[in-house]
Design a protein that fits this description.
The chain is of the alpha/beta class and about 280 residues long. The chain contains 10 helices and 8 strands.
């Protein structure tokens, strides 16, 4: 079962429209990020989505926003864990996969096609948890994203997000000839999208991607009204991996960072605003 809603935001940016088309193509091609959860993952869904135990033992009844998370995987896992699911994505083809999985698995999901920084269709404090898999790299400015997430997360609610590491987006995909090391090929302080790169597990074909600095990621989440409670770099390195492979490169630079943040109370946010204005 599903309930659809299309948000007609005025004048989407060229990059958002470009990435919507790119993800439609990737969904049609059945790339790994457009694959539903497997039966073995659904057998213990909370362990699959929350290996660090950040969410506690039970999320049944939680109102969960799966942000920029179409593709049928996240919606099915969180629904199997007993949550009430809303999925946001810019790609109608990715949402179509959620629609198909919801029909097949028999769960209810509200599907909304919109950009991750345009969540005005949701009420303030509507969600207990916002989960946000790797996708901030597809938008030029992350500050409006974090502000939008903060508005729709209830005080005390959680925001769990994963991002491409800035250093990983700077580094070459292939090692240098001497020593098998990876070089920093892109400037840290930069504007505009990254140059096109070969399709890989690290760079999605046809998309426009942006490098966001640590101050924009960690600082931006805090400035939006969240307190960061934990930060993890998921382990992908393998000691004996073939040179140039994803696992070999991960020995030199962690590809992703995962952040647990909690929405402050209205009183704490008011106090923080007073301090910042003094």
């Amino acid at each position: 079962m599903h309930r659809d809603a299309q948000h007609d935001s005025p004048g989407p940016s060229a990059s958002v429209a470009h990435n919507a088309r790119a993800w439609n193509a990737l969904a049609r091609d059945g790339v790994p990020l457009a694959q539903p959860a497997r039966d073995d993952e659904l057998a213990n869904p909370l362990a699959t989505v929350d290996p660090a135990g950040w969410l506690g033992p039970d999320i049944r009844g939680w109102r969960v926003l799966c942000l920029a998370a179409g593709g049928g995987r996240h919606s099915s896992l969180y629904a199997a864990a007993g949550a009430q699911i809303t999925v946001v994505d810019i790609s109608d083809e990715m949402l179509a996969l959620d629609r198909a999985v919801a029909r097949e698995r028999g769960f209810d999901a509200r599907l909304v096609q919109t950009s991750m920084d345009e969540l005005s269709m949701f009420a303030a404090g509507e969600f207990d948890l916002v989960i946000h898999p790797v996708s901030t790299c597809y938008i030029a400015d992350v500050a409006p994203v974090f502000a939008a997430v903060a508005r729709v997360t209830r005080p005390g609610g959680l925001y769990v997000s994963q991002h491409k590491s800035p250093t990983s987006l700077q580094a070459t995909l292939r090692p240098e000839r001497s020593g098998g090391n990876y070089a920093l090929a892109e400037r840290y302080y930069r504007e505009g999208p990254l140059p096109p790169a070969e399709p890989s597990r690290l760079r999605e074909r046809g998309t426009l991607e942006y490098l966001h600095r640590w101050e924009q990621l960690l600082g931006g989440i805090c400035r939006a009204g969240f307190a960061i409670e934990d930060v993890l770099e998921p382990m992908h390195a393998e000691r004996d991996a073939e040179q140039g492979s994803f696992a070999h490169r991960a020995q030199f630079v962690a590809p992703y960072v995962r952040i647990k943040a909690r929405r402050g109370s209205e009183r704490s946010l008011e106090s923080r605003s007073i301090l910042l204005s003094d």
